[in-house]
Write a structure and sequence with these properties.
- The chain is built from ten helices and eleven strands.
- By secondary structure, it is of the alpha/beta class.
- It has a domain of 184 residues: P-loop containing nucleotide triphosphate hydrolases (Rossmann fold), CATH 3.40.50.
- The protein has a seven-stranded mixed beta sheet, sandwiched between helices.
- Helix 3 crosses helix 4, helix 4 crosses helix 6 and helix 6 packs parallel to helix 7.
């Protein structure tokens, strides 16, 4: 078993030198409860990185550290260091609102605003001070989310009138409209049907030409289809019987699924537990 107090198994050349986000010895607490322990992880530019592992192993908790959404939980505390393009994200001088503009988020369930399709894109751009051609931005963002052809004749209709898969792509379009560099996706397909899931997966392949994507997924087939690199997380009992999550292994996706170095990874991807 991997010692959760040490660095996970990883291939030296798994990550290029072009690192966007660096995670160094990061632990996350909610009050006295430790949710994640001692994570080291580099996220390279223009790649899709998947976090897999059983429920309760800290995948989503770590994901939310990258755009400081855990700040919204009063008891949350992050130890260690997370840097974005060399800047400490938790430096007191760093504005978390600006962090969330540069590192966007797509949630598990589609959450379009109760506004028109057009305003779902334009609203966030206006809030962030966009001064360009709004019609062009809306079209570009919807095209970027592979949704334009389906909605171009009904931009004044409510975003809530779309199907679940379309709503999720609308949320992706809303995210890319504010031109982040990184997009976080927390189980973005768990509420979608198989056809909509494949459309979002195809979209990820296109988006990584412009963005870096980190996705949390319980679907190992999805991770194997979309991710360039995969981190396997596990959970272990700590003091008092509570469980904390830790990173077991991080490597190129084909290695994680076909030739993992850790037995726990092999057991998980082969379906022996989880």
């Amino acid at each position: 078993m991997t010692n959760p107090s040490t660095r996970p198994t990883s291939t030296n050349n798994a990550v290029s030198d072009d690192v966007v986000i660096r995670t160094e010895n990061v632990s996350v607490y909610y009050g006295a409860f430790q949710a994640v322990r001692n994570v080291y992880l580099d996220i390279p530019k223009n790649k899709v990185v998947a976090f897999i592992g059983p429920s309760g192993c800290g995948k989503s908790t770590l994901l939310r550290c990258y755009n400081r959404l855990n700040d919204l939980i009063p008891s949350a505390r992050v130890d260690g260091k997370i840097t974005y393009q060399g800047i400490d994200l938790y430096d007191p001088k760093v504005d978390p609102v600006e962090v969330r503009r540069r590192i966007g988020m797509v949630f598990q369930r589609p959450n379009p605003f109760p506004k028109s399709i057009y305003e779902n894109i334009a609203f966030g751009a206006r809030v962030n001070g966009y001064k360009g051609d709004m019609d062009e931005l809306v079209e570009r963002s919807l095209r970027g989310a592979a949704l334009w052809e389906e909605v171009k004749d009904k931009l004044k209709q409510s975003g809530l009138s779309l199907s679940g898969g379309q709503q999720q792509r609308l949320c992706i379009a809303r995210t890319i409209a504010i031109e982040p560099e990184v997009i976080l996706m927390d189980e973005p397909c768990s509420a979608l049907d198989p056809i909509s899931t494949l459309r979002v997966e195809d979209l990820m392949h296109d988006l990584k030409q412009r963005f870096t994507i980190i996705i949390v997924t319980h679907n190992m087939q999805q991770a194997s289809r979309v991710a360039d690199l995969t981190g396997f997380f596990n959970a272990e009992a700590g003091e008092g019987g509570s469980r904390f999550g830790y990173l077991v292994e991080y490597d190129r996706t084909e290695h994680i699924f076909n030739a993992p170095k850790e037995q726990a990874t092999q057991d998980y991807v082969s379906g022996r537990f989880g």
